[in-house]
């Protein structure tokens, strides 16, 4: 949980481990909605937001897609 100074609510970041690993992010949700790209906009990380990361020992096959890379 991250609460920037003066923020009205915290930003909550949680993680889930799969396959005994914690090196690669293989899935993510932001405010309980699937995040289908490998980046997050600053504005999306507003106070009260909930970012959930799923980590695994190996990268997801979709991670190599150029369309999912940051702009």
Characterization of the model:
The protein is globular. The protein has no helices and four strands. With 71 residues, it is mainly β. The chain has strands at 12-17, 24-30, 33-34, 50-56. It starts with 11 loop residues before the first strand and ends in a 15-residue tail after the last strand.
Distance between the termini: 27 Å
**Strand arrangement, major sheet:** 1-4-2-3
**Helix-strand string:** EEEE
Helix content: under 10%
| C-alpha geometry | globular
- Structural class comes to mainly beta
State Rg. Answer: 13 Å
| Count, helices | 0
In percent, how much strand structure appears in the residues? 25-35%
Mean pLDDT over the full residue set: 84
E-strand count? 4
Q: How does the major sheet shape up? A: 4 strands, mixed
* Uncertain runs: none
Helices and strands, with pairings:
Layout: E1 12-17, E2 24-30, E3 33-34, E4 50-56
Parallel strand pairs: 1-4
Antiparallel strand pairs: 2-3, 2-4
Short account of what is shown:
By secondary structure, this protein is mainly beta. It has strands at residues 12-17, 24-30, 33-34, 50-56.
Which descriptors apply to this entry?
4 strands, mainly beta, four-stranded mixed beta sheet, globular
């Amino acid at each position: 949980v991250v609460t920037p100074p003066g923020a009205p609510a915290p930003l909550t970041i949680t993680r889930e481990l799969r396959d005994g690993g914690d090196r690669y992010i293989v899935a993510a949700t932001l405010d309980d909605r699937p995040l289908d790209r490998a980046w997050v906009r600053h504005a999306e990380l507003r106070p009260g937001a909930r970012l959930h990361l799923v980590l695994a020992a190996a990268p997801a096959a979709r991670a190599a897609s150029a369309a999912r890379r940051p702009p």
